[in-house]
Amino acid sequence: MRKSWVKLGIEEKQKEKGEEEGYMERNVHIDNEWWKIATVYSKEMRKTTRRVENTMKMDREECMLLGGDFNGRIGERGARNWEEEKGDGRRKTKDKVENAEGKRLIEWIEENGWEVLNGNKRGDEEGEVTYVGSRGETVIDYAIVNEAAWERVKEFKVGERVDSDHLPLEITIEGTNQEEKEKGEMREEEKKVIVKVWSEHGVREYRRRLEEATFKEQEIEKMVTELKEVIEKATKKKEVIVRGAKGAGKKNGWWDRECEQAKREVVKALRGWRRNEIDRSRFLEAKRRYRERCREKKKQKREREEKEIKEIRTEREVWKYINRERKKKKPVSEKITIQEWEEYFMRLLEGRKEEGKVGTQRKEKQTVMEETEITAEEMYGTERMVERMVELMNGVWRGEGFPEDWREGVICPIFKKGEKNRAENYRGITLLNTGYKLYASVLSERMKREIEEKGVLPDSQAGFRKGRGTVDNVYILDHLARNELRKKGGRMYALFIDFKAAFDKVDRVKMFECMRERGISEWLVRKVEEIYARTRNKVKVGEKEGEWFETTKGVRQGCPLSPLLFTIYVADVDEMLKKAQAGGVVVGREKVWSLAFADDMVIVAKSEREMKEMMRNLEKYVRKKKLEVNVEKTKMMVFSKRKRKNEESEWKWEESKIERVSEFKYLGYTFNGRATVRAQVREVVRKANKVVGCVWGIGERMWGGEFGRRMMMFESMVESVLMYGAEIWGWKEREEVERVQEKYLRWRAAKFEDRMGGREECRILTECYREKKKNADEKEREKYCRRNGYASEEVERMRAEGRWMCAELSERDRDTDKQERRERIREARYNREYERCVTEDVPVYLGRESTKERKMMARFRCGNEERENKYWMEEEERMCRMCREERETIEHMWRGCGEMREREEKERGEILNEDGREIGWMKEVWKMRERIEKERGGE
């Protein structure tokens, strides 16, 4: 191992630890980062996890790589899909089996927020088998990393070897290839760039120049040109030198021109004092002002960070913040040429190249436009600037013209997943003109108001509507499934539909027809038609740009109007399903056929026959709308208590087979076929642990030892991930969740349902809430009464006869609690003797002033100081730590241990009495153990 590292120029720590049977650990230095690399051979997973946790003490910032033969099969679990809001959450692998040891392994991995490389990294896309022998072909060898290491692992693959049944795991880490590093260094060339100055001084100058500017033009196109020219003259610029992608200047986020100026003044004062030109007090005063300025800037930076963190509400915002702090990027493949990008997006959007005079004019005009594009910072410079923008938008609204710049968009490819060298595995984000986006936002708000007033959208569509959210649809679907499963033989069929490039497939002519059919006012329809009368795009990847091409299909990506336009486009799907009278599930006084959040759609039915008829009707609808279903990502789930015998139904969309799954992530919530919350709780705990691992390092860099701020960061960001779906599952205590964070669960669930009680935005949601509340109240009441010896009907009868039962039930409830507590103590495998010293009230020793004595008493009374209780240890480990002759118990240490002085015989309950009468003996035991441990260590 050392020879390989020396060859790669990797430093290894001299002091090694953790070498024992089945486990070996090394600490190595790779590219200014310490890596903890360990190999494992597991015979029993519980012992393996304990051994690793006890031995591998590591810093959260450190990269960790753990690999070896774990003798466990995790099946398709362990997928790295936490950034996706939908999907079946399965990892690619050729071994689909999950056994008990594999289950323990994956739960341990998720609990620590780690990742499995097998089937998740480039090089092992199909999840190759790692063991080929007489017992078959399986995956029992895994490579596991923490989040810090994941970013550095470039490739993982299962190698080839014939001298062992176990195939080697080959991992390529970025930065270990010397040639690659040298190439990277060569690419970092210095260049001069012009940047706009937005320091406090720069902003003041910008605003002053704008106040002096005059606006004369009244035609729309000329107004836009004039605005650009005024802004261009008002903006202060400077030339900076950039080396590669590293940029220039301070990166701490608080250092600015004022700090730079204050520093120059200190240096000037220092020189003056040394030359006896000024006295020492003036130098010290300049130094004080400089330090005060820096402290103030740091404080402002911290306050901005705190505010941003506290405002984080969703999981998407959490990962956006984390990825920004880690400077995580998804690079675009350099192997895809700009011509290939153009062809792909032109094919997707049915685009055509501009030709002749128009195309030439656009190219000439574009050179100026890109340099003078109006940004958000520039737009809000002064009141006069805002007023001018309002004038421009009002002119467009009145129909006086439409700026040509607003028709243009720059498409930037963003990698999704899969093979990076295929354009199909990227989605396009369109960068639109800032002024246009403001105009589209105003238009969108007006349209939303009209849509709600006229009831244009069905109740089942929750996407981008006031007072609605993803949790509404999750709540409804969960209730529908649970309600059906309560019935005898109850089942519910759900088809989760994935549209392929939904926004890009919209037929614009049909979209305008839909708007008019749904009752949208003619004026608003014409405003949208004006936007889509002509749209142009070009592709930009890094410094490379393609040519402009016109698009005739789809709604504009990145436009505030687009989600709303798509919901209108498919608003009649519920009417179509209702008219066909097939499928659907009844809740209260409503019937649900489909649920949608923009293009995330699910249809439901109570029987296989009805679902298949719904699918046939939906196929016709999709063809009519010229949309396309992604069959590979569309999944069928059957909610049922148990699988029926000989149930091998085949589900098809047109001629392609649809897969039936037992788990599926819909709108970020993981459903399973039993309609339990177990899958979602497991998923949020896994994600929360992932966030904990990321946030720890960011907090260390940002706040250092300020644990109050770090705790605020932890709670804000972890809570945002952990609380998703708590409205559904937060009523019941979850041990898994409490390990991460105990707060807010019931509060969050109660707050949502209290808010729902007075909501009128969605009738289906209200009916679900009423039914669920009624069922829950009745069930809880029945459970409470039976627990205390009565049936709820009997309690009601007695109350009707005038007998008040509250006091009696409360008294019985207290007695039942005591009995159950005693029963749990008697059945406990750990510390069976605790019953002999337990008290009904708060133990007296907890009133002692000494924290050390309270802790000592608690450990002896609860069995922590006896090795006899620790049944998972080997026999020799359970022996007395002082004499090593008998098992370590309270009785043995009191009278039988040869290292302790003889004492009169006493009962265990008296030795461990709550008043702490034998605290002196306990201290003696601790001191004796410490002395003996030192002596043995010296041997």
From TrEMBL:
Pfam entry (one): RVT_1
Keywords, alphabetical: Coiled coil
Residue span, Reverse transcriptase domain: 395-671
PROSITE patterns in UniProt: RT_POL
Record InterPro entries: DNA/RNA_pol_sf, Endo/exonu/phosph_ase_sf, Endo/exonuclease/phosphatase, Rev_trsase/Diguanyl_cyclase, RT_dom
GO terms assigned for molecular function: catalytic activity
Coiled-coil features, chain-numbered ranges: 203-237, 287-317
Entry-linked CDD domains: RT_nLTR_like
Domain of life: Eukaryota
Xref: Gene3D superfamilies: 3.30.70.270, Endonuclease/exonuclease/phosphatase (3.60.10.10)
Example GO biological process: DNA biosynthetic process
UniProt protein name: Reverse transcriptase domain-containing protein
